[in-house]
Queue: 4 jobs
Job 1
Amino acid sequence: MTMTTAEADKILSAHFAPWVLDLGLTVEAVGEDRAVLRLPWSDRLAREGGGLSGQALMAAADTATVIAVSAARGGFVPMTTVQQSTSFQRAVSGADVLIEAVLTKLGRRMAFADVTLSDASSGALAARAGTVYAILG
Protein backbone atom coordinates (compact mmCIF):
# COMPACT_ATOMS: atom_id res chain seq x y z
CA MET A 1 0.00 0.00 0.00
CA THR A 2 1.37 3.40 -0.98
CA MET A 3 1.63 6.08 1.68
CA THR A 4 -0.69 9.07 1.18
CA THR A 5 0.49 12.66 1.11
CA ALA A 6 -1.49 13.28 4.32
CA GLU A 7 0.39 10.45 6.06
CA ALA A 8 3.69 11.83 4.77
CA ASP A 9 2.81 15.35 6.00
CA LYS A 10 2.18 13.82 9.45
CA ILE A 11 5.70 12.37 9.40
CA LEU A 12 7.00 15.89 8.75
CA SER A 13 5.10 17.38 11.68
CA ALA A 14 5.90 14.55 14.09
CA HIS A 15 9.58 13.84 13.42
CA PHE A 16 11.35 17.02 12.33
CA ALA A 17 12.91 19.85 14.30
CA PRO A 18 10.99 23.13 14.54
CA TRP A 19 13.49 24.94 12.29
CA VAL A 20 12.87 22.37 9.53
CA LEU A 21 9.13 22.83 9.93
CA ASP A 22 9.70 26.59 9.58
CA LEU A 23 10.77 25.94 5.97
CA GLY A 24 7.09 25.31 5.19
CA LEU A 25 7.71 22.08 3.26
CA THR A 26 4.66 20.18 2.04
CA VAL A 27 4.43 16.76 0.45
CA GLU A 28 3.17 16.96 -3.14
CA ALA A 29 3.41 13.25 -4.01
CA VAL A 30 4.75 9.94 -2.70
CA GLY A 31 5.36 6.64 -4.43
CA GLU A 32 6.94 3.32 -3.67
CA ASP A 33 10.45 4.65 -4.28
CA ARG A 34 10.11 8.43 -4.27
CA ALA A 35 8.74 11.60 -2.71
CA VAL A 36 8.11 15.08 -4.09
CA LEU A 37 8.08 18.01 -1.68
CA ARG A 38 7.44 21.70 -2.24
CA LEU A 39 9.58 24.38 -0.62
CA PRO A 40 7.59 27.62 -0.79
CA TRP A 41 9.41 30.80 -1.70
CA SER A 42 10.14 33.02 1.29
CA ASP A 43 12.20 36.18 1.55
CA ARG A 44 13.34 34.80 4.93
CA LEU A 45 15.15 31.98 3.12
CA ALA A 46 16.83 34.22 0.54
CA ARG A 47 20.46 35.19 0.74
CA GLU A 48 22.01 38.47 -0.32
CA GLY A 49 21.18 38.94 -3.99
CA GLY A 50 17.73 37.35 -3.70
CA GLY A 51 18.48 33.70 -4.39
CA LEU A 52 17.16 30.95 -2.15
CA SER A 53 19.89 29.91 0.30
CA GLY A 54 21.82 26.71 -0.25
CA GLN A 55 21.23 25.71 3.37
CA ALA A 56 17.45 25.73 2.81
CA LEU A 57 17.81 23.69 -0.37
CA MET A 58 20.07 21.13 1.31
CA ALA A 59 17.68 20.78 4.25
CA ALA A 60 14.81 20.27 1.81
CA ALA A 61 16.74 17.55 -0.07
CA ASP A 62 17.58 15.83 3.21
CA THR A 63 13.95 15.96 4.33
CA ALA A 64 12.63 14.66 1.00
CA THR A 65 14.90 11.64 1.35
CA VAL A 66 13.43 10.81 4.76
CA ILE A 67 9.92 10.95 3.30
CA ALA A 68 10.95 8.74 0.33
CA VAL A 69 12.50 6.13 2.65
CA SER A 70 9.44 6.25 4.90
CA ALA A 71 7.14 5.77 1.92
CA ALA A 72 9.17 2.80 0.69
CA ARG A 73 9.15 1.17 4.12
CA GLY A 74 5.46 1.84 4.76
CA GLY A 75 6.02 4.29 7.62
CA PHE A 76 8.62 6.27 9.51
CA VAL A 77 11.58 4.49 11.08
CA PRO A 78 14.49 6.17 12.82
CA MET A 79 17.27 7.02 10.35
CA THR A 80 20.19 9.39 10.07
CA THR A 81 22.06 11.09 7.28
CA VAL A 82 25.41 9.48 6.56
CA GLN A 83 26.39 11.58 3.56
CA GLN A 84 24.92 14.32 1.38
CA SER A 85 26.55 15.93 -1.63
CA THR A 86 24.84 18.83 -3.36
CA SER A 87 25.71 20.55 -6.63
CA PHE A 88 24.05 23.91 -7.23
CA GLN A 89 23.35 24.76 -10.87
CA ARG A 90 21.30 27.96 -10.82
CA ALA A 91 19.72 30.33 -8.33
CA VAL A 92 16.02 30.24 -7.57
CA SER A 93 14.48 33.63 -6.91
CA GLY A 94 10.84 34.40 -6.24
CA ALA A 95 9.60 30.86 -6.95
CA ASP A 96 8.79 27.70 -5.05
CA VAL A 97 11.13 24.73 -5.41
CA LEU A 98 10.02 21.16 -6.14
CA ILE A 99 12.24 18.54 -4.57
CA GLU A 100 12.07 14.97 -5.89
CA ALA A 101 13.94 12.27 -3.99
CA VAL A 102 14.18 8.93 -5.83
CA LEU A 103 15.58 5.92 -4.00
CA THR A 104 18.27 4.16 -6.01
CA LYS A 105 18.86 1.43 -3.42
CA LEU A 106 16.98 0.53 -0.27
CA GLY A 107 18.53 -2.11 1.94
CA ARG A 108 17.77 -3.24 5.46
CA ARG A 109 20.26 -0.81 7.00
CA MET A 110 21.17 1.68 4.25
CA ALA A 111 19.28 3.81 1.73
CA PHE A 112 20.62 5.77 -1.24
CA ALA A 113 18.77 8.49 -3.15
CA ASP A 114 19.18 10.91 -6.01
CA VAL A 115 17.47 14.24 -5.42
CA THR A 116 16.59 16.94 -7.95
CA LEU A 117 15.56 20.44 -6.95
CA SER A 118 13.73 22.45 -9.62
CA ASP A 119 12.25 25.92 -9.94
CA ALA A 120 8.51 25.20 -9.76
CA SER A 121 7.55 28.03 -12.09
CA SER A 122 10.02 27.34 -14.91
CA GLY A 123 10.94 23.71 -14.33
CA ALA A 124 14.63 24.64 -14.52
CA LEU A 125 16.98 22.42 -12.55
CA ALA A 126 18.42 24.35 -9.61
CA ALA A 127 20.43 21.65 -7.84
CA ARG A 128 21.12 17.93 -7.58
CA ALA A 129 21.94 16.00 -4.43
CA GLY A 130 23.00 12.49 -3.59
CA THR A 131 22.07 11.25 -0.14
CA VAL A 132 22.97 8.19 1.93
CA TYR A 133 21.07 7.22 5.06
CA ALA A 134 21.61 4.68 7.80
CA ILE A 135 18.33 3.08 8.85
CA LEU A 136 18.36 2.67 12.62
CA GLY A 137 15.04 0.93 13.22
Note: The chain has a mean pLDDT of 96.
Job 2
Amino acid sequence: MSMKRTNVYADPEDLAIIKEAAARRGISEAEIIRQGIHLAAMANRVWDEPLFSRTFEGSGRTPSKEDLRNAVADSVRRESGSGTTA
Protein backbone atom coordinates (compact mmCIF):
# COMPACT_ATOMS: atom_id res chain seq x y z
CA MET A 1 0.00 0.00 0.00
CA SER A 2 1.41 3.37 -0.93
CA MET A 3 1.38 6.13 1.64
CA LYS A 4 1.08 9.87 1.30
CA ARG A 5 2.86 12.22 3.66
CA THR A 6 0.89 14.94 5.43
CA ASN A 7 1.48 17.38 8.27
CA VAL A 8 -0.96 17.98 11.10
CA TYR A 9 -0.97 19.94 14.32
CA ALA A 10 -1.60 17.85 17.41
CA ASP A 11 -2.06 18.54 21.09
CA PRO A 12 1.20 17.87 22.97
CA GLU A 13 -0.66 15.81 25.60
CA ASP A 14 -2.11 13.58 22.88
CA LEU A 15 1.36 13.11 21.39
CA ALA A 16 2.77 12.15 24.80
CA ILE A 17 0.03 9.52 25.18
CA ILE A 18 0.80 8.18 21.70
CA LYS A 19 4.52 8.04 22.54
CA GLU A 20 3.82 6.03 25.71
CA ALA A 21 1.42 3.69 23.91
CA ALA A 22 3.90 3.08 21.08
CA ALA A 23 6.64 2.14 23.55
CA ARG A 24 4.27 -0.10 25.51
CA ARG A 25 2.97 -1.86 22.39
CA GLY A 26 6.33 -2.05 20.62
CA ILE A 27 5.14 -0.24 17.50
CA SER A 28 5.93 3.14 16.00
CA GLU A 29 4.13 6.32 16.90
CA ALA A 30 3.39 6.71 13.18
CA GLU A 31 1.55 3.37 13.16
CA ILE A 32 -0.72 4.49 16.00
CA ILE A 33 -1.42 7.76 14.17
CA ARG A 34 -2.17 5.85 10.94
CA GLN A 35 -4.61 3.61 12.84
CA GLY A 36 -6.30 6.71 14.25
CA ILE A 37 -6.58 8.29 10.80
CA HIS A 38 -8.11 5.08 9.45
CA LEU A 39 -10.67 4.98 12.28
CA ALA A 40 -11.57 8.63 11.66
CA ALA A 41 -11.92 8.00 7.92
CA MET A 42 -14.18 4.99 8.42
CA ALA A 43 -16.31 6.80 11.01
CA ASN A 44 -16.99 9.59 8.53
CA ARG A 45 -17.42 7.49 5.39
CA VAL A 46 -20.68 7.82 3.47
CA TRP A 47 -21.81 4.48 2.11
CA ASP A 48 -23.51 4.11 -1.29
CA GLU A 49 -26.11 1.69 0.04
CA PRO A 50 -28.03 1.67 3.31
CA LEU A 51 -26.95 -0.86 5.91
CA PHE A 52 -30.42 -2.42 5.89
CA SER A 53 -31.97 -2.50 2.45
CA ARG A 54 -34.76 -4.97 3.23
CA THR A 55 -37.81 -4.48 5.37
CA PHE A 56 -39.40 -7.21 7.44
CA GLU A 57 -43.01 -7.78 8.35
CA GLY A 58 -43.80 -7.95 12.00
CA SER A 59 -45.89 -6.66 14.83
CA GLY A 60 -43.72 -3.58 15.39
CA ARG A 61 -42.88 -4.64 18.95
CA THR A 62 -39.74 -6.17 20.36
CA PRO A 63 -40.21 -9.93 20.71
CA SER A 64 -39.94 -11.48 24.16
CA LYS A 65 -37.43 -14.20 25.06
CA GLU A 66 -40.25 -16.71 24.89
CA ASP A 67 -41.24 -15.50 21.40
CA LEU A 68 -37.64 -15.94 20.23
CA ARG A 69 -37.31 -19.40 21.79
CA ASN A 70 -40.57 -20.50 20.14
CA ALA A 71 -39.52 -19.10 16.75
CA VAL A 72 -36.17 -20.90 16.90
CA ALA A 73 -37.77 -24.14 18.08
CA ASP A 74 -40.34 -23.95 15.26
CA SER A 75 -37.58 -23.38 12.72
CA VAL A 76 -35.54 -26.30 14.03
CA ARG A 77 -38.60 -28.55 13.86
CA ARG A 78 -39.27 -27.50 10.26
CA GLU A 79 -35.61 -28.00 9.26
CA SER A 80 -35.38 -31.43 10.88
CA GLY A 81 -38.84 -32.57 9.73
CA SER A 82 -39.72 -33.40 13.32
CA GLY A 83 -43.09 -32.56 14.80
CA THR A 84 -41.94 -32.85 18.40
CA THR A 85 -39.01 -31.70 20.50
CA ALA A 86 -37.04 -33.70 23.02
Note: The mean pLDDT is 88.
Job 3
Amino acid sequence: MTEWAGGLVLAFIGLAGGLAVGSGMVAFLVVLDIIPRLAQITRSYRHMRRYEGAVVIGSLFFTFTDFFEWTYGLFPMAAAFFGLFAGCFVGMLAAALTEVINVLPILAKRIGMEAYMIWLLMAMIFGKVLGSIIDWIGVLN
Protein backbone atom coordinates (compact mmCIF):
# COMPACT_ATOMS: atom_id res chain seq x y z
CA MET A 1 0.00 0.00 0.00
CA THR A 2 2.85 2.43 0.78
CA GLU A 3 4.43 1.80 -2.66
CA TRP A 4 1.13 2.72 -4.28
CA ALA A 5 0.84 5.90 -2.20
CA GLY A 6 4.45 6.81 -2.97
CA GLY A 7 3.79 6.35 -6.67
CA LEU A 8 0.70 8.52 -6.39
CA VAL A 9 2.69 11.27 -4.65
CA LEU A 10 5.42 11.09 -7.33
CA ALA A 11 2.80 11.27 -10.09
CA PHE A 12 1.24 14.31 -8.44
CA ILE A 13 4.62 16.04 -8.05
CA GLY A 14 5.53 15.28 -11.66
CA LEU A 15 2.20 16.54 -12.97
CA ALA A 16 2.40 19.69 -10.84
CA GLY A 17 5.96 20.37 -11.98
CA GLY A 18 5.05 19.84 -15.62
CA LEU A 19 2.06 22.13 -15.34
CA ALA A 20 4.16 24.82 -13.65
CA VAL A 21 6.92 24.68 -16.26
CA GLY A 22 4.47 24.53 -19.17
CA SER A 23 2.38 27.37 -17.79
CA GLY A 24 5.47 29.48 -17.25
CA MET A 25 6.67 28.84 -20.78
CA VAL A 26 3.30 29.73 -22.29
CA ALA A 27 3.07 32.82 -20.07
CA PHE A 28 6.49 33.99 -21.23
CA LEU A 29 5.66 33.40 -24.88
CA VAL A 30 2.31 35.19 -24.59
CA VAL A 31 3.26 38.04 -22.25
CA LEU A 32 6.55 38.78 -23.98
CA ASP A 33 5.02 38.53 -27.49
CA ILE A 34 7.97 36.58 -28.85
CA ILE A 35 6.22 35.15 -31.89
CA PRO A 36 4.49 38.39 -33.00
CA ARG A 37 7.75 40.28 -32.39
CA LEU A 38 9.63 37.74 -34.52
CA ALA A 39 7.08 38.22 -37.30
CA GLN A 40 7.35 42.00 -36.95
CA ILE A 41 11.15 42.04 -37.13
CA THR A 42 11.26 39.73 -40.15
CA ARG A 43 8.19 41.31 -41.78
CA SER A 44 6.61 37.88 -42.21
CA TYR A 45 3.17 38.25 -40.61
CA ARG A 46 1.72 35.79 -43.12
CA HIS A 47 3.81 33.00 -41.54
CA MET A 48 2.70 33.65 -37.95
CA ARG A 49 0.73 30.37 -37.75
CA ARG A 50 3.79 28.48 -38.97
CA TYR A 51 5.91 30.03 -36.22
CA GLU A 52 3.36 29.06 -33.60
CA GLY A 53 3.08 25.56 -35.01
CA ALA A 54 6.87 25.17 -35.05
CA VAL A 55 7.08 26.10 -31.36
CA VAL A 56 4.32 23.63 -30.41
CA ILE A 57 5.62 20.79 -32.58
CA GLY A 58 9.21 21.35 -31.44
CA SER A 59 8.17 21.37 -27.79
CA LEU A 60 6.17 18.16 -28.17
CA PHE A 61 8.84 16.41 -30.23
CA PHE A 62 11.69 17.13 -27.83
CA THR A 63 9.51 16.39 -24.81
CA PHE A 64 8.76 12.94 -26.23
CA THR A 65 12.44 12.50 -27.16
CA ASP A 66 13.47 13.20 -23.58
CA PHE A 67 10.61 11.29 -21.95
CA PHE A 68 10.99 8.10 -24.01
CA GLU A 69 14.81 8.43 -24.27
CA TRP A 70 14.81 8.25 -28.06
CA THR A 71 18.22 8.31 -29.71
CA TYR A 72 19.10 9.39 -33.22
CA GLY A 73 22.01 8.28 -35.38
CA LEU A 74 22.84 11.67 -36.82
CA PHE A 75 26.13 13.03 -38.05
CA PRO A 76 28.27 14.76 -35.39
CA MET A 77 27.61 18.29 -36.67
CA ALA A 78 23.87 17.79 -36.06
CA ALA A 79 24.48 18.80 -32.45
CA ALA A 80 25.76 22.17 -33.68
CA PHE A 81 22.67 22.52 -35.88
CA PHE A 82 20.26 21.87 -33.00
CA GLY A 83 22.40 23.97 -30.65
CA LEU A 84 22.18 26.92 -33.03
CA PHE A 85 18.39 26.85 -33.01
CA ALA A 86 18.22 26.32 -29.25
CA GLY A 87 20.61 29.23 -28.75
CA CYS A 88 18.51 31.47 -31.00
CA PHE A 89 15.39 30.60 -29.01
CA VAL A 90 17.05 31.18 -25.63
CA GLY A 91 18.56 34.43 -26.89
CA MET A 92 15.19 35.73 -28.10
CA LEU A 93 13.59 34.71 -24.82
CA ALA A 94 16.29 36.46 -22.79
CA ALA A 95 16.08 39.60 -24.92
CA ALA A 96 12.31 39.72 -24.57
CA LEU A 97 12.56 39.13 -20.83
CA THR A 98 14.94 42.03 -20.35
CA GLU A 99 12.48 44.29 -22.17
CA VAL A 100 9.62 43.29 -19.92
CA ILE A 101 11.36 42.70 -16.59
CA ASN A 102 8.24 43.62 -14.60
CA VAL A 103 6.21 40.59 -15.73
CA LEU A 104 5.77 39.07 -12.25
CA PRO A 105 4.48 42.21 -10.49
CA ILE A 106 1.98 42.83 -13.30
CA LEU A 107 0.85 39.22 -13.21
CA ALA A 108 0.51 39.30 -9.40
CA LYS A 109 -1.54 42.48 -9.61
CA ARG A 110 -3.86 41.02 -12.26
CA ILE A 111 -4.61 37.85 -10.32
CA GLY A 112 -4.89 39.65 -6.99
CA MET A 113 -1.79 38.25 -5.31
CA GLU A 114 0.04 41.52 -4.60
CA ALA A 115 0.14 40.84 -0.86
CA TYR A 116 1.68 37.41 -1.48
CA MET A 117 4.30 38.50 -4.02
CA ILE A 118 7.26 37.88 -1.70
CA TRP A 119 5.98 34.36 -0.93
CA LEU A 120 5.50 33.65 -4.63
CA LEU A 121 9.06 34.76 -5.41
CA MET A 122 10.54 32.85 -2.48
CA ALA A 123 8.64 29.69 -3.47
CA MET A 124 10.00 29.99 -7.00
CA ILE A 125 13.56 30.61 -5.79
CA PHE A 126 13.61 27.82 -3.20
CA GLY A 127 11.93 25.41 -5.62
CA LYS A 128 14.56 26.09 -8.26
CA VAL A 129 17.41 25.78 -5.76
CA LEU A 130 16.05 22.56 -4.26
CA GLY A 131 15.39 21.06 -7.68
CA SER A 132 18.92 21.96 -8.83
CA ILE A 133 20.50 20.45 -5.72
CA ILE A 134 18.51 17.24 -6.12
CA ASP A 135 19.57 17.05 -9.77
CA TRP A 136 23.23 17.81 -9.05
CA ILE A 137 23.68 15.24 -6.29
CA GLY A 138 21.85 12.63 -8.34
CA VAL A 139 19.15 11.60 -5.86
CA LEU A 140 16.69 10.63 -8.59
CA ASN A 141 19.17 8.71 -10.78
Note: The chain has a mean pLDDT of 80.
Job 4
Amino acid sequence: MAQRLADLGDAAVAAGAEALMFTCSSISQYAAPLADRLGVPVYRVDEAMADEAVRTGDRVSVIATLPTTVQ
Protein backbone atom coordinates (compact mmCIF):
# COMPACT_ATOMS: atom_id res chain seq x y z
CA MET A 1 0.00 0.00 0.00
CA ALA A 2 2.79 2.43 0.91
CA GLN A 3 4.44 2.02 -2.49
CA ARG A 4 1.15 2.40 -4.35
CA LEU A 5 0.38 5.64 -2.50
CA ALA A 6 3.92 6.86 -3.12
CA ASP A 7 3.54 6.17 -6.85
CA LEU A 8 0.21 7.99 -6.95
CA GLY A 9 1.64 10.86 -4.92
CA ASP A 10 4.61 11.15 -7.27
CA ALA A 11 2.26 11.31 -10.23
CA ALA A 12 0.06 13.93 -8.58
CA VAL A 13 3.00 16.16 -7.68
CA ALA A 14 4.49 15.74 -11.16
CA ALA A 15 1.13 16.88 -12.56
CA GLY A 16 1.25 20.02 -10.40
CA ALA A 17 -0.55 19.05 -7.18
CA GLU A 18 0.41 21.26 -4.24
CA ALA A 19 -1.31 19.05 -1.65
CA LEU A 20 -2.99 15.67 -1.37
CA MET A 21 -6.09 14.59 0.57
CA PHE A 22 -6.68 11.13 1.96
CA THR A 23 -10.42 10.48 2.14
CA CYS A 24 -10.19 7.05 3.73
CA SER A 25 -9.19 6.70 7.35
CA SER A 26 -7.85 3.18 6.78
CA ILE A 27 -4.77 4.65 5.06
CA SER A 28 -4.24 7.65 7.34
CA GLN A 29 -1.04 6.22 8.82
CA TYR A 30 0.64 6.76 5.46
CA ALA A 31 -0.07 10.52 5.36
CA ALA A 32 2.89 11.87 7.37
CA PRO A 33 5.56 9.67 5.75
CA LEU A 34 4.19 10.49 2.31
CA ALA A 35 4.14 14.22 3.03
CA ASP A 36 7.79 14.02 4.10
CA ARG A 37 8.68 12.08 0.97
CA LEU A 38 6.81 14.32 -1.47
CA GLY A 39 7.42 17.70 0.16
CA VAL A 40 3.74 18.68 -0.02
CA PRO A 41 1.02 18.53 2.65
CA VAL A 42 -1.00 15.33 2.80
CA TYR A 43 -4.28 16.01 4.58
CA ARG A 44 -6.45 13.40 6.26
CA VAL A 45 -10.20 13.85 6.09
CA ASP A 46 -10.61 12.17 9.47
CA GLU A 47 -8.04 14.28 11.33
CA ALA A 48 -10.06 17.51 11.57
CA MET A 49 -13.15 15.53 12.56
CA ALA A 50 -11.30 13.77 15.36
CA ASP A 51 -9.70 17.01 16.55
CA GLU A 52 -13.10 18.69 16.74
CA ALA A 53 -14.64 15.75 18.59
CA VAL A 54 -11.89 15.82 21.21
CA ARG A 55 -12.07 19.61 21.49
CA THR A 56 -15.84 19.73 22.03
CA GLY A 57 -16.72 16.43 23.68
CA ASP A 58 -16.21 15.07 27.15
CA ARG A 59 -16.34 11.52 25.83
CA VAL A 60 -15.60 10.36 22.31
CA SER A 61 -16.52 6.99 20.85
CA VAL A 62 -15.19 5.60 17.60
CA ILE A 63 -16.97 3.01 15.51
CA ALA A 64 -14.86 1.53 12.74
CA THR A 65 -15.24 -1.27 10.23
CA LEU A 66 -11.52 -1.94 9.75
CA PRO A 67 -8.73 -2.40 12.31
CA THR A 68 -6.52 -0.01 10.32
CA THR A 69 -9.06 2.76 10.90
CA VAL A 70 -8.70 2.48 14.64
CA GLN A 71 -4.91 2.61 14.40
Note: The chain has a mean pLDDT of 91.
